[in-house]
User: What shape does this take?
Amino acid sequence: MTIHKSSALPLFALGATFAVTYALLRASSPVHAVESYRPLACEAAERAGIDPNLLLALVTVESQGDPHARSSAGALGLTQLKLIAARDAAAQLGEPPPTAEDLFVPATSLRLGAAYLRWLIQRFGDTRVALAAYLKGPEWVARSGGVEEASKRLRAPSEVSHYVQRILELSARLSERATPAPPKGH
Assistant: This one.
């Protein structure tokens, strides 16, 4: 196939096209989408006593910032909670049980997701194990042989260890982005 000079895009146009495409992809990235929920996430995380960047990272991995996300397993909203877990979290907060539709409301999803994650962290005493339990359910820890064995399992490559690592790495990146740089000359 021959490309005629008249039909080929000039190189500078290709560069501009690439730059625009790259900028659009960055702007629509899950991390960027989740940043818009930072004020709500900070409020929910503060109330729950957890790191807001950990909550935002969890939302990035779970729903990519889509408040209407719905998994094939029945997890709903930004934090991808199943209704039973959301109802347990609401009970811990002294709130009425949410409906499935409630989980599509960002503030509700973040508040209940933060409360549920805090409960898992307190229950297992290990953030990595708590994140694995968030993905697989708290019974995963018991099936793994307890917290210590679950922690060992997370050292080996697996879907669960990859999930936990992605959240922790994203949390660290979000923390760096949220922390203002020190003034120059100091």
